[in-house]
Amino acid sequence: MSEAIFDAISKAVTEGEEVEADRLVEQALEAGLAPLDILQKGVVHGITRAGELWKANEYFLPDVILAADAFKTAMQPLEPRLKEGTDGRRGGKYVIGVVEGDMHDLGKSLVGAMLTSAGFEVIDLGIDVPASRFIDAVKEHQPVIVGMGAYMTTTMLQMKTIISELEKQGLRRGLKIMVGGVPTSQEFADEVGADAWGKDALDSMQKALKLIGA
Amino acid sequence: MANPTLELVHGLLYGNGFRIGKLSSTGRVFATILGSHGDTIPFMGPQIHDHAMTVARVPARKYYFDARLLVDVQLAVERWYGFDTYTIIPDAYNFEVEALGAKMIYSDDAMPTVDTNVPLIKDRADLEKIGTLDPSRGRIPMGVELARLVSEKASGPFAMGFFCSPFSLICQAMGYPKAVRALKRDRALAQELFDFAENQAIFPYLKAQSEQPGVKQSAGADAWAAFPNLTPELVQEWVTPSAKRLAERGKQELKMTVMAGLAAADYCEEDPAKFDKEIMFKCWSVARNSFVMDVALSAMGRTQDWDMRWLQEFAVQHSKLGRKLPIYASLNGRFMRDSSPQQIVEKIKEWIDIMGRDGRLLFFIANVPADTPPLNVHTAVQSVHTLGRYPIAKDLASIRSEPPGFQPFDQWLKDQPEADTIFKAREWQPEKKVFA
Fold first, then answer.
1. B371 touches chain A (CB under 8 A)
2. I need a surface site. Which of A52, A201, B46, B166 has the fewest CB within 10 A?
């Protein structure tokens, strides 16, 4: 039963069927399946598949947006259960967002979900986030990590500006910064002064944990 | 002032083999579009508002609010560069939503932008509340005056007013993700949104433009409808019919040519690893119906990494009366900004070699970024005009290009009709508010 429901959740997320994805996740939780399994084998599997189809030119931006919607809807009943499972042993606040001018939601949402499952309290600023909102969020939430995503070579350059501004305003002390997204690389992360580069969602989660010494 | 009709006839004759007399810039464009080629490859005037403002060193808070200044700056800068046509537009995507009440961000050194954190349309109920555009609000009077001035000063077939096309307007009002969700999941809402954009937002603006002397046409850019934001299928389903409705209403009620959906389906995939010939061909096919002219179109895409043999193949495949479609070959704005003059020259040689030898090639830049070095733009225009002179040299690669010669802008401007307006604008100061 469990494999069938994981497959169904995955399919609903990939195809952007948010109502169905939500219903299936609730059903899986009621059936007593482990939240982490539902996340990884169902929800994350589905959104990863959408990403693969996007890469293969079989999905286009509108399809990806719907898949991301379904992903977020499916995460709603899961998130509280995932947090319960971490026993407060690790984590802290993690501010995440996609830089201004960039509308690509999928990768960021995926990283956010993985971080939540790892026990971080994720403050998601969304997409197309101006530098000032990153700065304000750091002041307001005092996170342990800020993560910035970009899909385009043009928009990724804003990460450098944001990091400089954080330094200028004296907000960098004790704050770790991660960058990620298709055009970024370890070299780019080094160049802009980030503490870590997230190659993909899993890698981002692992590096975030490493940054806080968990 | 030149006579556009005579220029058209001269271009038509020249392009079809009667090569007598010296072609004007406009004649050169007509020769390329209506015949095989002119004396040299034309370079169409690009969208240049932020860059022109930077070159002319005028303050954004005046430039984007004063039709005469904006028109004069763009006329002067485009003539300084030597483009063959004018494209005179401000931040064309903002006017209607701004007048309808969208929260805007104004800046000292850049164009106004919509504050995406506070969308004008949050849900369906907002459509009722917003109502119909009042042409006396926001910068609509400026847009109307701009259409009049462009028709008066630029004249000819490329003089036109501007507006924001329906899909882009919807994105400006509610954000792209919500707009796309409506198209894919809620057809009734999508239809309501298009109806609102066409009839309550855009049409009153077009009507105001049509009441100005000389304004016979208006064009609506639609960058939000470019690929991959929308697939060619979605453009055909939503954007093309909407553009047809607006064109029909403009013709019937305003006696005006209304061209919506420009740049819809423009192939803008950023990742070269994902460039796909089949999808490109689909996009170009749809874009043919969305542009001012029937051309093989490139505009905002990452064209520096394209295989231009595909665009040439498409143009030949869709030949009419034994002639390939004219090709709009657009040098990417970021490529223009970030490349060296030599890299630009090499790209132009490559493209002329592939697409220019059999004529019907026009060069273009979709949008020149503010901080593009003027040297790069001069290099591009002069290289196209010299390397593109017919008959095209057999071995373009071996031609050594010289740095372009040009006067500094201010020195050149002194003798131009726009000098006064531009120099005075530099002294402009915002009014200081006095509080009692």
1. no
2. A52
* CA-closest candidate to residue B306, choices B327, B286, B337: B327
The nearest alpha carbon in chain A to B273 belongs to A55
Residues A109 and A63 reside in one and the same domain: no
Number of domains in chain B: 2
Describe the crossing of helices A61-84 and A106-117 by its angle, rounded to 10 degrees: 10
Give the span between the Cα atoms of B33 and B20, in whole angstroms: 18
Residue B252 sits in the same domain as residue B119: yes
What is residue A148's predicted lDDT score, i.e. its pLDDT?
A: 96
Model confidence over B358-386: pLDDT tens digits? 999 999 998 898 989 999 999 999 999 99
pLDDT by residue (tens digit) across B1-37?
478 888 889 999 999 999 989 999 999 999 999 999 9
Beta-carbon separation of A65 and B180 below 8 A? yes
Query: How far B260 CA sits from the closest chain A CA (Å)?
Result: 22
Task: State pLDDT tens for residues B179-223.
Answer: 999 999 999 999 999 999 999 999 999 999 999 999 999 999 999
> In terms of domains, do B28 and B175 share one?
no
User: Distance (Å) from the C-alpha of residue B101 to the closest C-alpha of chain A?
Assistant: 21
Q: Specify whether A7 is located in the same domain as A75.
A: yes
Q: Give residue A203's domain range.
A: 92-211
Query: What's the number of domains chain A is made of?
Result: 2
Q: Give the N- to C-terminal CA distance of chain A in Å, as an integer.
A: 35
